[in-house]
Amino acid sequence: MTRLVAALALCLTAAFAQPALDSPRAGCLRGADGALRTVHGISGALLAGAPAASSVISAACSDSFALVKTDNSLEVRDGGLALMARWDAPAGAALFALPRTGQAGFVYYPATGKLFQVDAQSLPRPVLDSQSLGGNVLAIASPDLLHLIAVVADTPGPRLVRISVADGTIDSQTPLEDVAVPLALLSDGTVLFADGAGIVIRPPGAAVARLVQSRLRLMPVRRPLVTERRIALPAPVATIDQMGGAWLAVRLADGSGPLALRLEGGREQICRIPMMEPAP
Amino acid sequence: MRGALTLLYLLPLLLPGQALLRVRAIDNGGAARKAGARSAGLTVEVTDELGKPVPTAVVNVRLPDDGPSGSFANGLSSVILTTGADGRAGTTPISWNRLPGTAEIRITAVSGRLRAGTIATCRLSDPEPEPDKPAVTASEPEKHGPRVIMKPHASSGGGHLKWILIGAAAAGASAATLGLRRSGSTTSSGSTGGGSGIVTSITALGAPTVGAHP
């Protein structure tokens, strides 16, 4: 009898240890049906899991946590999409900026034009509003918890704005040329935007480099300038979301399955994300 | 023994995990309050995703640090409560400051590892004007340091009347003297002056000072 109990305990222990053995996590993905799923795997072999949340309007994930916007609430979830906190929020979509690590991020509500710092411990703290920025915010990113960068569109044209989070002051502004929506902003200042049936990746400084090159044609270029790159896609881009870490989720306007775009080390990889269908 | 061991292992699976937490403020007597006044406390309700009350949830209610705000009975701008079996918790009455406007009350609830929060707004209307200070009468002398100012009144006692008469007599004498001097020096004006048309309002006779309006 004692051996039987010991064997049973051993088997149960092994069974309960299974969740600790997990495949690498690439982030999370909001499907067209509003369901939020975790994405596991490595480049070229990704798989979106079962829905962890529904009725999701906007979402963004980092390696350690996720911000999820539903109709009237903002949810803070951990890396496995388990709910940690739920804060009341205005209706509508939201833009997110998540540092790659850490347990705090930023949310911008286009409906109210207000930007907040968010974590799971306390209610979101207001940072500034769109009136201070002088235009509509198209995308935000967080290089660190003390700074925020945003693409702001107003009458003269879009510009990249760097904001100090502590007091909400604007540190610097850089004009952005020839960008289009939808667009996404990475924490290093790289801008991605739709361009017909493709997507353009513009690293920081690329626009300025192109301007200098066009004005000073006679001067020889001694070192290669930073240039933007374009990836051709089967259809125009509908949305670009932060999937987690170095991954972006790109949804096409033709309704086909989502794509995962990885940007790291000046190289990009793109692959499809198959969905795990529920058993009938 | 075997059953107990199995139950111990299966316990985490048998206990349903709470998936969602909701918190809301139940207004006591309307969202509008008068600035500078004291109002009933705020009642907070914490429920789960099915609307069932969540007992023993820890609730933090925080009034704004500046602008239109107030304080609870403990004199602080925040209070920590625990919900009862009905999922509700109530604060002590709130004493609002005299700044009209909208006060944002930040409410956070914690139950287990879940947190939820909301911002309840409270509109503070203009405060009522402060009541005027009561007028000082002769029977209630006001002390301003070592000097005593006494205002005459029709019903003042004999002591006051004595000082008034002395003051009036002195004023009359002064006026008469002044009128005689003027009439002597400025004869071209044709005015004799005299004491009849001159009113002396205050005459100082050293301490105490007496004000007289004959």
In short:
The complex is a heterodimer of chains A (280) and B (214). Chain A has 280 residues and is mostly beta strands. Chain A has helices spanning 2-16, 130-133, 206-215, and strands at 25-30, 36-42, 45-53, 58-61, 65-69, 73-78, 83-88, 95-97, 104-109, 114-119, 125-129, 136-144, 147-153, 159-164, 170-175, 183-185, 191-194, 198-202, 229-232, 237-244, 247-252, 259-264, 267-272.
Account of the 3D structure:
The complex is a heterodimer of chains A (280) and B (214). Helix content of chain A is 10%, strand content 48%. Chain A is mainly beta. Chain A has a single domain (24-272), classed as Neuraminidase, CATH 2.120.10.30. Chain A is globular. Chain B folds into 2 domains: 18-125, Immunoglobulins (Immunoglobulin-like); 142-211, no CATH class. Chain B is built from 2 helices and 15 strands. Chain B starts with a helix and ends with a strand. Residues 8-16, 137-158 and 182-214 of chain B have low confidence and may be disordered. Chains A and B meet through helix 1 and strand 7 of A and helix 1 and strand 11 of B. Strand 7 of chain A pairs parallel with strand 11 (114-125) of chain B, so a sheet runs across the interface.
Write the layout of secondary structure elements.
The complex is a heterodimer of chains A (280) and B (214).
Chain A: H1 2-16, E1 25-30, E2 36-42, E3 45-53, E4 58-61, E5 65-69, E6 73-78, E7 83-88, E8 95-97, E9 104-109, E10 114-119, E11 125-129, H2 130-133, E12 136-144, E13 147-153, E14 159-164, E15 170-175, E16 183-185, E17 191-194, E18 198-202, H3 206-215, E19 229-232, E20 237-244, E21 247-252, E22 259-264, E23 267-272
Antiparallel strand pairs in A: 1-2, 2-3, 4-5, 5-6, 6-7, 8-9, 9-10, 10-11, 12-13, 13-14, 14-15, 16-17, 17-18, 18-19, 20-21, 21-22, 22-23
Chain B: H1 2-14, E1 21-26, E2 32-34, E3 38-39, E4 43-48, E5 58-62, E6 70-71, E7 78-82, E8 88-90, E9 94-96, E10 101-111, E11 114-125, E12 142-144, E13 147-150, H2 158-185, E14 202-203, E15 209-211
Parallel strand pairs in B: 2-11, 13-15
Antiparallel strand pairs in B: 1-4, 3-9, 4-8, 5-7, 5-10, 6-9, 10-11, 12-13, 14-15
